[in-house]
């Protein structure tokens, strides 16, 4: 099976209709908070943010935003780029960022590969992909975001010596990610003991997807890969 896949790596984009307030915020505030990929990326990604930040992190597919917003609140001196194509989740994030006056968050509501290709080489200090859609049926595995080409994208955008962090409760996707990262020359798995991949990272707030997995009897795995 080839890793190459030309379609989207996410499913549906719309769910329940937005409230009038959130609809208005999406129309007025997302353009301000969103990345303009028609313009060249700044050589220093810290220039994307209204706040003075010391480093920049990326979260691909932030879902309900629990992790992204928690990290942004507790680390106001770090810039966060959050990507999420699902409209309801993006609206929730926009509402929180605007309502709390966060100046260290930028957002993008389409395919993550567009951002990864737009970012300057060696510009990110950390990248997260947490509880992504596992596409559990084997015939859909080609739609999993972790593949050789997208790891190339992560590797290009991450600074050497920085981390790519991945979490999932689906064993086949955990094994899939370990295999693909093991086979990629730019990444090394950092785990030395079982607790390293069974324990979330410091400051972990949990996510709705993690909570759902726990309710259904599944256990999350937390993988950290070093960009060599």
Task: Outline the structure in words.
It is a single chain. The protein is an alpha/beta fold and 228 residues long. It has one domain: Rossmann fold (3-Layer(aba) Sandwich). Helices cover 34% and strands 19% of the residues. Keywords: Methyltransferase, S-adenosyl-L-methionine, Transferase, tRNA processing. InterPro entries: SAM-dependent_MTases_sf, tRNA_(Gua-N-7)_MeTrfase_Trmb, tRNA_methyltr_TrmB_bact.
Which features characterize this protein?
228 residues; 34% helix; globular; alpha/beta; Rossmann fold; 7 strands
Do you know the CATH architecture? 3-Layer(aba) Sandwich
Ends: how far apart?
27 Å
CATH classification, class level = Alpha Beta
Which runs of at least 5 residues are low in confidence (pLDDT < 50)? none
The H-level CATH homologous superfamily, spelled out, is Vaccinia Virus protein VP39
Tell me the strand order in the biggest sheet: 3-2-1-4-5-7-6
Any idea how many domains? Answer: 1
Instruction: State the total count of DSSP E strands.
Output: 7
Average residue-wise pLDDT: 93
Question: What fold name goes in the CATH topology slot?
Answer: Rossmann fold
